[in-house]
Amino acid sequence: MKKRTYRGVEVKKVNGARLAERVAGRDVVVGVDVGKEVCFGSLMGADQEVLVTVKWKSPWEDRTFVELLGGLGCRSIEVAMEPSGTYGDPLRSLLWEAGVPVYRVGAKRSHDAAEVYDGVPSWHDAKSAAVIAKLHKDGASDPWPFRSEKERDLRAVVTTMDLLDQQFHQNLNRLEGHMARHWPEVGAWLELTSVTFLELLLRFGGPEQIAARQEEARETMRAAGGRFLKEEKIEAVVESSCKTIGVPMTAQEMEELRNLANRTLDLYRHLQTTRRKVDRMSQDRASIQAISRAVGKGTAAVLVVEGGDPGQYGSSSEWLKTFGLNLKERSSGKHIGKTKITKRGSGKARKWLYLAALRLIQKDLVVRTWYERKLARDGGEKKKKAIVAVMRKLVRALWYVGRGEPLDTSKMFDVKRLGLSCG
Asked: pLDDT-based confidence at 260, cuts 50/70/90?
C-alpha cells in the first residue's frame, strides 16, 4: 500500500484561486478534525484523493475557513465532523449559516478505520481529517443539523433538572449520614426527602432542640405537612427526639445541619419548579407525553432529549443503541466470551432509566418476578446486571410507547414461563 504523507497548510496561506481551479464543477467532501485550539480540514475529491489539508486556529480562524470553502465554486460541498463535545459547535453553526450541509462520523468508527486507510495504525489530526472525509464518502455518516431553538431550550431545562436532581440526592445522602449518627429513629416516621423533615431540621438543627421545644416542633410539622400529616406521626417524631440513642450534637454540628437542610430545601424547591417547566415545554411533544405515562415526565423528557424521538428510529434496537445499552462481547483475560453494554451513549439517560427500572421492579408484578428469576439464575449476586437487563427490556418497550402504544409489561417478558396470567 502506498505510504501517505500528511501536511497541513495554514488557512491564510492557501492559494484560493488555484484550489478553486482544481475543484471547479466537482463534488468535494471536507473531513474536519476539531481540536480545542487547532483544527484540520481535508478536502477530498470524488476519487478519494486529498486535494489539500488546511489547518487553522479555532475559534479565531473558523470564519476564514468557512469563507474559503464558500469561494471555491464546487458543484457540491459537504463537511463531515466527529462529535467533540462543544468545541466544534461554533464551526458547525457557521457552516450551516453558509448553506454547507454538515454530517457526523462516530469517533470510534474513525479510530477503527485508521489502519485500514493507509496501513499504518498511527493517529494524528491531519490523518484523522482525511479518514473522516473517506468514511463520509463511504456512507458512514449521518446528517448533523442544528436543533431548533425550541429543542435547545428544552434540552437546557432538562440539563438543569438533571443537575439539580443530582445535587439534591447528594445532599440527601449527606443528611442520611448525619441522621444515622445523631437521630437514627426519625427515618421510621418521616421521609428524609419530605419538606416536613427538612423544615424541621432547618428550624431546630437536631433532636435535642426538638425535644426542648416540643410544641414549636409540632407546629412546624403541622405547617409543613398540612392535612396529610397525621397527629400520631407528629407525636411519634417528637417522642423519638426525646428518646433517641443518637450521638448528642454540638452547637456547631447543629448549625452545619441547619445549613445543609437549608441548601437541600432550596434545591428541592428549585427542582420542583424546573420539573414543572420541563412539563410545560414538552406539552406539544407527543412522544414525551406518551412515555411520561409509563415512566414519569422527568424521565420521559430526558430520554427523548438525549436519545431522540423514537419515531426517528426504524427499530427498538436502534433506539437502544443511542443509550449505550446494546451489548458487545468482552474478550480479555478471564472475561472471554462474556458480554457487557457498550455505554456508548448518554450516561444521563442511563441514570434516569436505571431509576425507572428500579421503580418498575418495586411496583410491577411481571417485572419484579422476571427480575427475581434472573437474579436467582445468576446466583443472587449480580443485582446490577439484572437491573441493566430490565433497563434494556424497558427501552425496547418505550420505543413502542413513544410511537403510540400503551406500556404492557406482559409483552416485555414471557409471562407463561414466569407462571403468570396475561389477564
From this structure: very high
Q: Given its phi and psi angles, is residue 221 left (phi above 0), alpha (psi -120 to 50 degrees) or beta?
A: alpha
Average pLDDT (287-297) is 96
Measured distance CA(4)–CA(353) in Å, rounded: 46
Report the alpha-carbon distance of residue 129 to residue 50 in Å, rounded. 10
SS3 84: strand
Model confidence at 114, in pLDDT bands (50, 70, 90)?
low
In angstroms, rounded to a whole number, what is the distance separating the alpha carbons of residues 102 and 82?
Answer: 10
Lateral strand order in the sheet of 142-143: 9-10, 50-57, 38-44, 27-33, 76-81, 102-104, 142-143
Instruction: Check: CB of residue 271 under 8 Å from CB of residue 175.
Output: no
Other beta carbons less than 10 A from residue 3's beta carbon: 7
Q: What's the predicted TM-score (pTM) here?
A: 0.84
Q: How far apart are CA 235 and CA 237, in angstroms?
A: 5
1 by Cβ neighbours in 10 Å (0-12 / 13-18 / 19+) ranks as exposed
How confident is the model over 306-335, as a mean pLDDT? 81
Task: Dump pLDDT digits (tens) for 14-61.
Answer: 999 999 999 998 999 999 999 889 999 999 988 888 999 999 999 999
Residue that has been written with the C-alpha cell 438533571 in this structure: 162
Q: How far apart are CA 171 and CA 188, in angstroms?
A: 19
* Most confident segment among 83-97, 140-154, 258-272: 258-272
As a whole number, mean pLDDT of residues 107-116 equals 66
Q: What is the largest CA-CA distance in the chain?
A: 89
- Using a CB cutoff of 8 Å and minimum separation of 24, what contacts does 206-211 make? 206/182, 206/249, 206/253, 206/254, 206/257, 207/182, 207/183, 207/240, 207/241, 207/242, 207/244, 207/246, 207/249, 208/241, 208/248, 208/249, 208/254, 209/254, 210/237, 210/238, 210/241, 211/238, 211/241, 211/242
335, with CB counted inside 10 A (0-12, 13-18, 19+), is exposed
Name residue 33's amino acid. D
Q: pLDDT band for position 84 (50/70/90)?
A: confident
Burial of 367 (0-12, 13-18, 19+ CB in 10 A): buried
- Confidence class for position 109, pLDDT limits 50, 70, 90: confident
Cβ atoms of residues 83 and 107 within 8 Å:
yes
C-alpha grid cell for residue 45?
A: 475529491
**Cell output for 142:** 449521518
Burial class (CB in 10 A: 0-12, 13-18, 19+), 13: exposed
